[in-house]
Amino acid sequence: MSFRMRTGFFLQTRTGCGSTTGPVSRVLKYCNSRSLAVVPQGGNTGLVGGSVPVFDEVIINMASMKNVVSFDKVSGILVCEAGCILENLISFLDNQGFVMPLDLGAKGSCQIGGNVSTNAGGLRLVRYGSLHGNVLGIEVVLANGDVLDMLGTLRKDNTGYDLKHLFIGSEGSLGIITKVSILTPPKLSSVNLAFLACKDYSSCQKLLLEAKRRLGEVLSAFEFLDNQSLDLVLNHLEGVRNPLPPSMHNFYALIETTGSDESYDKEKLEAFLLRSMEGGLISDGVLAQDINQASSFWRIREGVAEALMKAGAVYKYDLSLPVEKMYNLVEEMRIRLGDSSKVIGYGHLGDGNLHLNISTPQYDDMILAQIEPFVYEWTSKHRGSISAEHGLGLMKANKIFYSKSRESVQLMASIKKLMDPNGILNPYKVLPHSLSYS
Amino acid sequence: MSFRMRTGFFLQTRTGCGSTTGPVSRVLKYCNSRSLAVVPQGGNTGLVGGSVPVFDEVIINMASMKNVVSFDKVSGILVCEAGCILENLISFLDNQGFVMPLDLGAKGSCQIGGNVSTNAGGLRLVRYGSLHGNVLGIEVVLANGDVLDMLGTLRKDNTGYDLKHLFIGSEGSLGIITKVSILTPPKLSSVNLAFLACKDYSSCQKLLLEAKRRLGEVLSAFEFLDNQSLDLVLNHLEGVRNPLPPSMHNFYALIETTGSDESYDKEKLEAFLLRSMEGGLISDGVLAQDINQASSFWRIREGVAEALMKAGAVYKYDLSLPVEKMYNLVEEMRIRLGDSSKVIGYGHLGDGNLHLNISTPQYDDMILAQIEPFVYEWTSKHRGSISAEHGLGLMKANKIFYSKSRESVQLMASIKKLMDPNGILNPYKVLPHSLSYS
């Protein structure tokens, strides 16, 4: 059975909890009483199968809950329904002179409820921090249909356990987020972006350290990609070109600054780049001269995932690792796989987040067997995370022990059982099968 | 029975969990098996009785766990034991070129484990955000003595429920934090501080909004106090003087900026102050010329609590409220109490956090009856928090319903029961008595 809630159904009911939470509550109450499993679904842009039904789950699609509830221009606090598309919120805030502390490639489709449920990271985390810091409150419907109103709009509130954090990143397995309150920073007028080349990974690392120290408060993104990633984008995406003169560089970095003073910020970034060039950390580089050029630089970084899709089959890994060891994994994987595959590394260097992707002409179990469990064991050995920002969903639920202790996972399972005793909320996801049905 | 763990006891045992976690685990295992209640105690600087025994609880004093475990200069990630005194960590990091994202008046005694357990806020929250954003991992001993190793040092990790948040701010009632991993930003070289006078509260608010927008990325603190607070400090603390020429101002604000460029940052702040003066938002003001003058300005703001103690009896309230309504409460309280008491308001305006304090010659139940429950009802009516940063502890546990819904508190109690079925961890605290023994 697959069931999509119709807009009409959403609109015909008003309750004390707002116009659209009531029906979600009633659907869950009904499903819980009959032990019918449900999958909450936002923009369905996740990469680990967290928002797709596995067998006969009822899909609760959140797209109709797309209203902004309130925005306070003094505090910058936005309250909105879970189905708001991220890009729409970004535009809304832009008109108000504020910015979302979250930005990611899928913004055109992904929804804020899904972002919060999966604790999405993205491109601005290095500046604004994680959603655990920026989300001030949520309204959530529990498995039994109870509505938990934690929709606070306060920066500080130490009255009891801060339960909202249980739902941030739990991928819809403990409740369905229906509203979100989020702290948004004022928009700053001056944004600068540089596309840079580094001769080796060690230079990228040093450049990051220097950027954090010298650009300090204006640094808003530090992304990197290797030359294999750039080649892939140039070969598979139309209209994308290398901003630098053709030459052999091994790594590329995007450094973005966001501040409140156009001329000073640009001078500051230019001075930093000059210094880094003289110090040998950068081999070449170009500063975006206008917003179009900046968009074309971002297109390269944000286009890697799309280019991979066009190139053939792809094995995707989203890992957190200590920055100094991060790229060793890419190199070891290349040696392991030889010429059978293209191994590329890119991601949010500023957050220690590597997107390791392996591109092959078609899916091949022999290749997969060479990648896994090696990639997880390597990550675990270096105390990394096997899912930095994508979550576990269906695909990685059984891999949780590579990053979490048995005691921690056991406690997660106990909390799941406490809050969803019939196991109706997004089953087969997040927690390992061995535990979620015990 | 009151029991203080001796240093010798801590040191004589080494386990896989580090040199000092083992004994905490064994003490809890023992106490749990015999249903002996325990109180974890850090610097004992809390204001709501969260770290004091009520009847016969065993005190587990954390002062011996005072080692820095590791510090990574590339990522700025500090791992340390729970008993480290905040000020020692601030000094340690200063030597490494980094800063703690947390600073508060009690830093000379309070411990990082206590800070995290109570989700301490303090003076830098407006810049660096809350501990939910900055704490990357913790090690915690559960009621049954199990050690939960969640001591991650990664900025991003979406593998399962992020359980550490349950312990941040739960005031030792779900487990005892033994180690902390925290993300620290690089120290920026240029700090500027201005002490300003505003004619009315409305000007303070507008000044805050302007500061957020125009100082943007360099704003690191925005504190306010009313003239009654300043009078109290000037009258009761030795060696403190008003930095401004004597004149009748109703409000004072401290604005601090932290950036990476001395001359530019100062110019920026000066330009902002000039503009605000011309626009009538500021009536008078002075920019600290050196670190000594800056310390003397901070002494005024940080000295209010001490001055109150010297002035007589004090009723303390730590409230989060929408900024625009915040000071109405102070004014209404003055009308309510008449000449019997001094009502003062100060706090972290940048975070919407008011410290409302009522000073009387001695404690008087008649006065208390005029303050409570009025202050809680007023706060609840405006969807504020009755404890912004101090927690609930013993004194406010029964007040939780003013800020949290019945469903939320019920879920908190269920989680408490799941994790501490014998109720040995910090009993009588945080949760209302009606629920914690049900």
Automatic annotation (TrEMBL), chains A, B:
The keyword Oxidoreductase applies. It is an enzyme of class 1 (oxidoreductase). GO terms for cellular component: mitochondrion. Its cofactor is FAD. Residues 5-187 form the FAD-binding PCMH-type domain. Keywords: FAD, Flavoprotein, Oxidoreductase. The keyword Phosphoprotein does not apply. PROSITE patterns: FAD_PCMH. Signal peptide: none annotated. InterPro entries: FAD-bd_oxidored_4_C (IPR004113), FAD-bd_PCMH (IPR016166), FAD-oxidored/transferase_4 (IPR051264), Oxid_FAD_bind_N (IPR006094). It holds the Pfam family FAD_binding_4. One of its GO terms (molecular function) is FAD binding. Its EC number is 1.1.99.39. PANTHER family: D-2-HYDROXYGLUTARATE DEHYDROGENASE, MITOCHONDRIAL (PTHR43716:SF1). Belongs to the FAD-binding oxidoreductase/transferase type 4 family. This is D-2-hydroxyglutarate dehydrogenase. It comes from Carya illinoinensis (Pecan).
